[in-house]
Amino acid sequence: MSVLFRNAEAIVTSASAPVQRGADLLTDGNRIAAIGPDLEAPDGVEVIDATGWVIYPGLVNTHHHFFQCFVRNRVELDWTRLSLIEWLDTIYPIFAKLDEECFHHASLVAMAELIKHGCTTAFDHQYAFPKNAGTRLVDRQFEAAEILGMRFHAGRGANTLPKSEGSTIPDALLETTDGFLADCERLIGAYHDPSPFAMRQVAVAPCQPVNCWEETFTRSIELARDKGVRLHTHVGEGESPVIEARHGKRTVAYLEEMGFAGTDTWYAHCWELTPDEIRALAASDTGVSHCPEPVYLVGAEVTDIPAMAAAGVRISLGADGAASNDNSNLMHCIHSGYMLQCLAARTREYPVPFPADFLRYATEGGAEMLGRPELGRLEPGMAADLFAVDTRAMDYVGTRHDPVSLPAKVGFGAPVELTMIDGRIVWAKGEFPGLDELQMAARAEAAMHHALSR
């Protein structure tokens, strides 16, 4: 299938390239074929009038927990009323109630919201495997991604350290290192596609150092590098003093010394890093998925993105899960991430990155983090992953002169006009083509109530 977007108001080919005004964009199958004025429409092409539209590269989400969609907007889990330990003791028993259907439907819910707001590639860090839910939870996530047409990277996580040894994990959610790695190997064999334009990939992603045996991390390194897949975990979200008490070093040094670092590795959060730790990440080329929305709720301090950018740390954006962000909207994270850094600017050594940089973190930055050079930009030969916003509405009067800064400075408060993934239109005119959104939502609600009522 080929699509010609005719007469766009602007085409933002990347956050750092000149904007193309009044241009057309032609796709051929799952790739961009051409961008420019007055393109010829090949036989059989679908022509879409893009008058007034700004077309952007699809967003790339590099950290999420889809299953947490079933615990959002709950007063009893409000971070402002609970300490971290009280919150963990409250929420993990809820996670333990979830069954296989919950994980499937929660994935549909999260991916649907992401797609509505321009996200075309999503990484999910699935670390909760309740004993009553079985072992095929990630399989059901891939099934959900196929239904919606999402380009999906699955992070197979795990928690292996018992509560009796200092973790926060109840026995109902505990796994063994052997069991975790065996399932990682199974998933890699069944789903991981290393080829360009792949729709399915897998990463080895033990949940976090405070809740896993050291062996879980060292053996994850061995497996991931043997299979040629990426590594991911949580770092720098308040756990460094605990790791230092256990191992005599903070989290970044602990992981780097064992080799859980490098170009194939990225960490989520990192809000408590010291200047030396930031320099260490830059030196090892370890990336950071910045999740701005959780900083509002649980961050002791604002992640020092300016210092990371100045040091040369690779940066991307993540929505994170509903335990600390009650939406699945990466577009909103572009705006909130920029505004959060502006709030903290007076206390920082380095200036806030430009608004365009936050769009770059959510596109090229995310693509680079996941090892996907064919994503994150719009140019011939790249993946046909994009979204479009109709800027003729009152919301955008006075803003259209700079569409690159628009997502960060103004933001998009409503679903986008259209989302295309792998050359296929998966969201347009307020609908998922060929799917009944109300029916999907009703089934998800039923699955949630069935599990949580037990």
TrEMBL record:
The entry's keywords: Hydrolase
GO MF, one annotated term: hydrolase activity, acting on carbon-nitrogen (but not peptide) bonds
Pfam families registered for this protein in UniProt: Amidohydro_1
Position of the signal peptide: none
Keyword Nucleotidyltransferase among record annotations: no
Domain Amidohydrolase-related residue range list: 54-426
Domain of life per record: Bacteria
InterPro entries xref list: Amidohydro-rel, Metal-dep_hydrolase_composite, Metal_Hydrolase, MTA/SAH_deaminase
Coiled-coil region list: none
Family: Belongs to the metallo-dependent hydrolases superfamily. ATZ/TRZ family.
The protein's name in its UniProt record: Amidohydrolase
Taxonomic lineage from the root: Bacteria, Pseudomonadati, Pseudomonadota, Alphaproteobacteria, Rhodobacterales
